[in-house]
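ok trying this again, last paste got cut off
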Amino acid sequence: MELGLPFETYVEQYRYKYLALYHALRAAIHSGKLPEGTRLPATRELAKLYGVSRGSAAQSYDMLMAEGYVVSRQGSGTYVAEGIAMVDQPPPVEGAPVLSAWGQRLVSQSGDYTSAQMMLREPPRGTISFANARMPMEDFPYSEWRSALSYAGGSGGIELQNGAPPEGDLELRQAIAGHLRFTRGIQADPEHIVIFSGSMQGLVLMFQLLVDPGDQVVMEDPGYQGIYRGISLSGGIPLPSPVDDAGLIPRDWDADLLVVSPSRQYPTGAVLPLERRRALLNWARSRQAFIIEDDYDSEFRWGGKPIEPLRMLDNEGRVIFVGSFSKTMFTGLRIGYAVLPPSLVEAVVQAKALYEPISPAVLEQRALARFIVRGGYGRHLRRMTRLYGARYEALRQAMDTHASELFRLHPGDAGLHVYANWLRSEEEYVLVQEAARKRGVMFRDASVYHRTPGLPAACFGFSHLDIASIEEGVARIAQAWLDMQKT
């Protein structure tokens, strides 16, 4: 039986055929058209079926495998992974409600949930995966965190029944204000800080408040896929704007909202120079626009001088500073926050109250406040910064030794992954991913972050790997390249 996919539809959206095939397969898995356990065609068969190279077919499988959608069974083939939550809805019955335009957009882009779940899946045994970056829990100060949780519950659990207002626990907002004042130079009033269930919830709420249907919203290209989806779901029109080695290139955009990651651009890691940061603030002033500063991944900084956030330079209340604890603590701690201009506080709190009249995860909020105020968070950051700095240096040296003719790493002073440009042909990039998979190593294809076509690139997450695994993984990539030369 042939595998039927809307391949041509996806070819119209994406420049490369392997990306079109990847998205078509992923959509079929999400919808349930390819149920868990389904055996997929061999790469040779898939390539023949859709008129692509075998390397393109292999690369689409590699991307799905890196994200946990499919698994490879030696000698048997490639199968849809088990445990994937399907999002397809049954056909409407008479009298059933019809989704609004917003609801239809939400369902059509609901891959966010499943993709997040896939990030938690472990790669096949023996595989060294650079695809994801996460906190190594063996180095997390769990006993100190457990003590903070116990304190937050109160004697005999007396505090467990007490809630917090929509804007979040006051002690946590005060602790965040103190932390930002000391580490980032941001003079933040606790009354201007709102707590969210992760930074993405905060971003989407800002889009819903600040974006009218049809409004253009500037975002970085390449950039975080969730921002593109959040803008689109809110009725806005994403306006991808180019990024170079120094970050977002300022322009006179016809827009009233900009989303930018100046301290560490996602995914390239570029740091926006001071003159560009000032140019963005001048643009916002001239347009009476707002800037959302996404500070997603800059707490772990092992080199370079401290970066002045846009919020620190803003004297007119134009910058919304958004941060998260999910990367600095652990993935399951869904606590994000926004430092708001005074003019937006009331509107944001009222809007959030519609979704969450009582702030969720209050126990964790109070524990985190305790953890910050007692110095545990600062000690944890310093300890992990030293660890990540050593692992980054191991990756840099291994790449320089074994793969300098294959990848050019973007230099980094912070963060949990490194962006790398591929130095060979596009066809060879497709083939080396397949060859690397056979050698038991994976890395993330960075093309998924581009809204407009870009040169082949990869992201190497290293935070969860020890130095020996990093060196072994890079050596396997180099060996995979040599394998290709022999065929």
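PB: full thing came through this time. Confidence is low (pLDDT under 50) at residues 85-96, 110-120.
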